[in-house]
Amino acid sequence: MKTTPADIHILIVEDDLASRSLLVSYFENAGYRVSETDNADHLAERIDQDAVDLVLLDISLPGKDGLTVTRELRANSAVGIILVTSKGDEIDRIVGLELGADDYVTKPFNPRELLVRAKNLLWRMFIADTAKRNGESRSQMIYSFEGWQLDPYKRQLTSPEGHHERLPEGEFKLLQTLVNHPGQVLSRDQLMDAIHDREWTPNDRSVDVLIGRLRRKLGDNPSNPQLILTAHGAGYMFAGNTGS
Amino acid sequence: MKTTPADIHILIVEDDLASRSLLVSYFENAGYRVSETDNADHLAERIDQDAVDLVLLDISLPGKDGLTVTRELRANSAVGIILVTSKGDEIDRIVGLELGADDYVTKPFNPRELLVRAKNLLWRMFIADTAKRNGESRSQMIYSFEGWQLDPYKRQLTSPEGHHERLPEGEFKLLQTLVNHPGQVLSRDQLMDAIHDREWTPNDRSVDVLIGRLRRKLGDNPSNPQLILTAHGAGYMFAGNTGS
DNA sequence: CTCAGATGTAACAGAATGTAAAAAGGACTT
DNA sequence: AAGTCCTTTTTACATTCTGTTACATCTGAG
After folding, report:
1. Which chain A residue has its CA at the smallest distance from B122's CA?
2. How do strand B235-238 and strand B185-186 relate by DSSP bridges?
3. Could you say which DSSP state residue A5 is in?
4. What is the pLDDT of residue A128?
């Protein structure tokens, strides 16, 4: 399993040209390697051959039943499957999930939302993969730095003294993103992207506020921060020693 | 076991002509080979002779008790059985499943839903068949997490201390959906889909109320939940360790 | 050193969530 | 029918979270 977008191969199965092009360009802009097709013939083989990591599957393809396709894929492969369904297909959606799809979006969908779901799924696949590799259960996949521990599964922060605290959604995602890129300056743009499905405008201070809240919870003195450093004019950087 | 619709033989046992015709045409349109009957006489023999793969059985046939029929069928055959029950027969429904039926639908049902359930069951049968039927299928369908157990047939929740409790339909489906997707944030939209066919409007709090009831029954402190986490602005997520 | 722009943060307002309790269904019973 | 029991949905209000604003402080180019 890969972690950088360029290494991740996404296959878009959609018969409508307009929708397909939209999706392709959207995911290409996000940096992924994208393939496309307008039919589900020999899908399993193609996925296997081309080392596809994630499939976006329009469930109402002409000729073939999307649910059957889902089954066939899941039966032989651990590929990520996101179904694209129409407004009225509640049952298909539910059964689709039961049959092994990982997620779905409903047409008409917001491309941003789809991208977020795709990222989330890829992340879950990555976690599951590494956990499996190490023979661990999911909950043991824990970030640790400077005596602190961050449990991404329960979204809980544990201090060196052993005090547990549940982090709010935004703070958790921000800290997770920082910890995932130690020693790397992340722009507010990037951080905003990781936290939310939202644009960043030059006067937006919400990232700064979240950073402040995190620093306080981490006991990090802002005038001499040890964990979350400020890169003036650029963004923020996590400087803790991971794995300690 | 076959995989293409034309090879699959479905028998519809239903005394009401209108319902029966509807079902027959619906499944024929889906490409299956369909037979029909208005009584359950010599059902086992007929199924055996005609190589029936799946039976849709109206539980309230005149003369014969659908439950008895179910037991007889299951005793001698691995045929797929989907019960068609009336609205009020909750007890019959559960007993039917315990006697060996594979699934049920409630009248008045959506033909589409029945078709999807039938496909789903045929697929499960195919899987079970190829997997050589090792281990009983029933116990594998029990969800377990953190000492809790959830029995989908009885809709029963068992605490780590062994205390049983029947869950209402909505709470059960919600919990089942969450448990089926551990670590994944599910939007209220998705959860609403899973509970029943209904749109979610921004001011709809019914999902939240159900979540609250589940948390109380699971002993999950909402201000520091361990099992059902809140993803502010996004939805809810199950964070228990499944399979333990 | 100065100063414009960038960052830190308290405080507030608006939005989202938790939840008790009332209202509204639904199905069975009398 | 009316009543009862169970479940679901709505309502209302308390609580929590998030983003904005305002102002204090800091940084670094010049």
Report:
1. A68
2. antiparallel
3. G
4. 83
Domains of chain A: 5-133 (3.40.50.2300), 138-238 (1.10.10.10)
Give distance CA B210 / C1' C17 (Å).
13
pTM for the full predicted model:
0.81
- pLDDT tens digits, A142-183: 899 999 999 998 999 999 999 999 999 999 999 999 999 999
Q: Mark the nucleotides of strand C covered by protein, meaning any atom under 7 Å from a CB.
A: 6-11, 16-21, 26-28
Residue type, A173: K
Query: Which long-range contacts does A116-125 make (Cβ < 8 Å, 24+ apart)?
Result: A116/A197, A117/A82, A118/A10, A118/A27, A118/A54, A118/A56, A118/A80, A118/A82, A120/B184, A120/B185, A121/A54, A121/A80, A121/A82, A121/B184, A122/A8, A122/A53, A122/A54, A122/A80, A124/B183, A124/B184, A125/A1, A125/A53, A125/A78, A125/A80
Contact A228/A236 with Cβ under 8 angstroms?
yes
How far, in Å, CA of B183 to CA of B219, rounded? 19
Q: What are the structure tokens assigned to B212, written together?
A: 């609250």
Give the nearest nucleotide to B234, CA to C1'.
C16
CA distances from A18 to A7, A107, B119 (A): 26, 13, 31
Structure tokens at A239: 């400087």
